[in-house]
Amino acid sequence: xxxxxxxxxxxxxxxxxxxxxxxxxxxxxxxxxxxxxxxxxxxxxxxxxxxxxxxxxxxxxxxxxxxxxxxxxxxxxxxxxxxxxxxxxxxxxxxxxxxxxxxxxxxxxxxxxxxxxxxxxxxxxxxxxxxxxxxxxxxxxxxxxxxxxxxxxxxxxxxxxxxxxxxxxxxxxxxxxxxxxxxxxxxxxxxxxxxxxxxxxxxxxxxxxxxxxxxxxxxxxxxxxxxxxxxxxxxxxxxxxxxxxxxxxxxxxxxxxxxxxxxxxxxxxxxxxxxxxxxxxxxxxxxxxxxxxxxxxxxxxxxxxxxxxxxxxxxxxxxxxxxxxxxxxxxxxxxxxxxxxxxxxxxxxxxxxxxxxxxxxxxxxxxxxxx
Length: 371
Hints:
Strand order of the largest sheet: 3-4-5-2-1-6-7-8-11
CATH topology of the largest domain: Rossmann fold
Low-confidence stretches: 34-42, 44-69, 75-87, 110-115, 165-252, 289-315, 359-371
Mean pLDDT: 53
Number of domains: 2
Order of helices and strands: EHEHEEEHEHEHEHEEEHHHHHHHHH
Distance between the termini: 28 Å
Number of strands: 11
């Protein structure tokens, strides 16, 4: 099974994954949700899957259309491309589950559609009435998906859910100075965010999670590169900085103030360890830049920060607490990342947990923070 990769859904990320895996030692089996079935039929009829690559360098953009031949897994006959039989095949979700252990799941990420998309995908897996215990699902922004998956009973039935950042592949025609354009000199950069299993199985699965996280990283050919774009994506573009203002707006407490200061101090320590010394903006500076507002004091910063995209990716019952929970998880992730490269981080974890505790144990029971 380790040579088989499943991709569920049509998106910018999944199409680039298909393109990438077709050049490696993998067979890629592809299926889609019901609203994507037309695209699957089009692929089957034409026998080709077209991927558009976008990259920019020295202020010049280029595009390249890449055509990959696609087989039908229900009537499978692999053929060689350039002497390599790593062909993508369209199939059903049932076949995908039977023949693969690693499946990338494409989820709608914008607005209220996100929660509906999560529920549809979870139901699609549950309605199979199959053994799912071998599956590792890789999903962009999987923390919200995991909360709903646990509520609906999917999380306890799969082996693991791995969280993957969207930035490297979801970008298209970004400008040269964009922090989300993480394709440098044609090399793709992936950063794993987190992994989750059912809270009732945490203890007995810790060892497996560690091993499986490495397997998933290997599967995706992840390169955590010591480059501006990679570090910028992890520490600046992602939620720890851009959602700090949201944490303020939702729950402005002394613990949150300490948390943002701790994050800045520890972030700098990690950057120094990575020999990356160019980023000197603190989180408040990023807040000013992000929202184009001027804040004279931290209290005013919180009161004047707009709470945007409030319902995206979280069950409605938890939307009031989304950003506080999310930021707490991110700070713990940052601490874990720092520990992995032997940087002493003493402050983030405690302050992050304090922030989560402010919501009350009952309200956070389904979003237990795991580093």
